[in-house]
Specification:
Helix content is 13%, strand content 29%. The protein is α+β, with helices and mostly antiparallel strands and 365 residues long. The protein starts with 14 loop residues before the first helix and ends with a strand.
């Protein structure tokens, strides 16, 4: 999203949960230089100026008959990823923990038929930053879409090799004739995911808003589509998906890990034109991307996963004058070793247990 909506609901989660949410919500394009994009999802078309990606729109259905409109962004099988023009994430093979993955099968007519899992897009997303000169943490937030207890974007196609796909739902139980009305105008987010900028089933496309961040010193663009915590989902314009909590968030790059870290700067430099601006306070004050940092992304490491585990990062109170733009995981660790940044309460930087589904779409050279 390129701007921060100002509305209301009571905040009941921790400051760190708020932190991750804002990190992933305030997408859009920054005033920084627009480097050429390397499109990582070949099936999509990236528009850096607009901060969007246009993707193939897929129509599936529930076993009970409701339409399920979704996108395909990642898969656990490398050959399938190349064939479909989406991201390969070997770590998705490690997500079958608890109920984090649901099943679907390919029907004779070529649609995916899902065993369970619905999404309600009717709630109104409401967010209000904190008052006056203290915009962080936000004072109020509520999600704009909510998955039921069976919903997860992680789908195992039982008669398609058993591979696990990352298939976020963008509309549920809406007829094609209704969605085709949006081919000519603005989408209705009472029916659609809050990241939808444009949708047109007759063209077979949907356009989604991107969020900017960093990996390995390079600017990246990604979509945050689901979150395991309601407050986070509200702030990032994602679907609240409690079932994602079944995936352990603290395994890093362990052998059976399904996640990749996202480093969330809490109190970085502020100011719209400051080249070092970064973090949640700045994002809420300026309406610009918080510029989070992640580890591996496609083409920049084999450990990529779209499931990002939040790692809050605080600049030490006596080192605020040394704040700078952090653009890589190695930089986070170097600053921590030097005593310039730390985790919550002055501790080590680590996972706070929050997961967000963040498929990476492009990087900038």
């Amino acid at each position: 999203m390129s701007s921060f909506p100002r509305s209301s609901i009571r905040v009941s989660h921790s400051l760190l949960a708020v932190g991750l949410a804002v990190v992933l919500t305030l997408g859009g394009t920054n005033a920084q230089a627009q480097a050429p994009a390397v499109n990582l999802v070949a099936s999509g078309e990236v528009d850096l100026a607009a901060g969007t990606v246009t993707l193939p729109l897929h129509q599936g259905r529930m076993a009970s008959g409701e339409n399920v409109w979704h996108v395909l962004l990642d898969v656990s099988d490398r050959d399938t990823a190349e064939r479909l023009g989406i991201n390969w994430s070997g770590k998705l093979a490690n997500t079958e923990i608890g109920r984090a993955v649901r099943d679907a099968e390919i029907s004779p007519d070529g649609e995916l038929v899902f065993d369970a899992g619905t999404v309600d897009f009717a709630p109104v997303r409401r967010v209000e930053p904190g008052p006056g000169a203290a915009p962080f943490p936000p004072s109020q937030a509520t999600p704009g879409s909510v998955g039921d207890d069976d919903y997860t974007p992680l789908v195992r196609v039982t008669n398609g090799g058993g591979h696990i796909f990352n298939a976020p739902v963008v509309a549920f139980d809406v007829e094609v004739e209704t969605l085709d009305e949006f081919c000519r105008g603005a989408p209705d987010h009472a029916l659609l995911h809050d990241k939808v900028v444009h949708i047109c089933p007759r063209d077979g496309t949907v356009t989604l808003a991107l969020t900017s961040g960093f990996s390995g010193g390079k600017r990246i663009e990604y979509i945050s589509s689901e979150a395991s915590v309601a407050l986070v989902a509200a702030l990032e314009g994602a679907t609240f998906t409690p079932r994602l909590s079944d995936v352990p968030a603290n395994q890093g790059d362990a052998v059976w890990s399904a996640v990749e870290p996202i480093y969330v700067v809490i109190n970085g430099q502020t100011g719209e034109t400051d080249p070092a601006r970064q973090g949640l306070t700045s994002a809420l004050a300026d309406g610009l991307p918080p510029l989070n940092i992640t580890g591996d992304v496609p083409t920049l490491g084999d450990g990529y996963s779209p499931l990002w585990a939040s790692h809050p990062v605080f600049w030490a109170a006596d080192n605020l004058g040394q704040r700078r733009l952090i653009t890589g995981e190695a930089g986070v660790h170097a600053l921590e070793a030097a005593g310039l940044v730390h985790g919550p309460g002055g501790g080590v930087i680590g996972s706070d247990g929050i997961l967000v589904n963040c498929p990476v779409i492009a990087r900038r050279d």
